Amino acid sequence: MKLSTRTRYGLRAILELATNQAKGPLQLKIIARNQDISLKYLEQLMATLKSAGLVRSLRGSKGGYILAKAANQIKLSDVFSALEGPSAITVECLDDNGYCVRTADCVTRQVWAQVQQAVMGVLESLTLQDLVDRAKEKGNLDYQI
Amino acid sequence: MKLSTRTRYGLRAILELATNQAKGPLQLKIIARNQDISLKYLEQLMATLKSAGLVRSLRGSKGGYILAKAANQIKLSDVFSALEGPSAITVECLDDNGYCVRTADCVTRQVWAQVQQAVMGVLESLTLQDLVDRAKEKGNLDYQI
DNA sequence: TAATATACTACTAATAAGGTAGGAATATAG
DNA sequence: CTATATTCCTACCTTATTAGTAGTATATTA
After folding, report:
1. What count of other Cβ atoms lies within 10 Å of the Cβ of residue A71?
2. How far apart are CA B125 and CA B121, in angstroms?
3. Please, are residues A53 and A68 in contact by the beta-carbon 8 Å criterion?
4. Residue B122's pLDDT is what?
5. B134 and chain A: CB distance < 8 Å anywhere?
6. Kind and range of the H or E element at A77?
7. pLDDT tens-digit readout, A29-79
């Protein structure tokens, strides 16, 4: 169960937006440099976050990205789902009841459902604002190097 | 975060051993048929479980596999770790402190650590015996079709 | 019009997942 | 002692996914 770079990079990127919200649109160029992510790759990740309605973009000179909602309205589960897919843990039989004849009684399926719930529980309990606050506590105001 | 077939098949296979513990060694041929898993692939999964000390094997005619310990002594986290790797969620910076300069203050890393804990919490709280019991409750005595 | 951003789409390289295949070693039955 | 059944070992292979790269189009500002 490897966490993809998509999700890891994407979370770091949107967290930068949350951190620098006051400063107006933030350019991907900046994020890419701060976070050591390829600009071109980052563009794709942000496109995903945009179509999930989590960020908005402004084109052209002085453009960039901003959060589409307040940081305390964006749950980590939203970010995660957008980037990683709808269910935290991909097990075919969880998403498709017809996938397997044993579905109804299958105890292993139940286990994966429990695990899934546990993961989503954590991610639903945290917002971007929580992370910004945590970072501030650490004196890590900009979250940048 | 896709759960590999290794882990899914592996858990189903060792659960069959737990369910049929009383009947002596169970042959992979049987498990493969019941669980619809390729015999050759299953051989590999069982080899992994064997080297993790979770099952024992008996060669030759009338041979097969048995659990290496009582079903209530085998936690799902043991099975999972053996098959999926040591940490529930693979994020390089969790396993390698030197991986990233931001490690100490990184709030996203903290999130992944929390998620990891949540997953392991579930898997550590369950044993094979628990699953056997659950299956019995459902009247699904053999866990087979 | 020049410069600066995002938007869109296609391609590519590397890695991992999910097996297959063949034969060697070992145990049991007769 | 031989036939059969089973695990053991190792190598290979195919497909899908990940993680990017690249190029060009479009929009905005100054």
Report:
1. 19
2. 6
3. yes
4. 97
5. yes
6. helix A76-84
7. 999 999 999 999 999 999 999 999 999 999 999 999 999 999 999 999 999
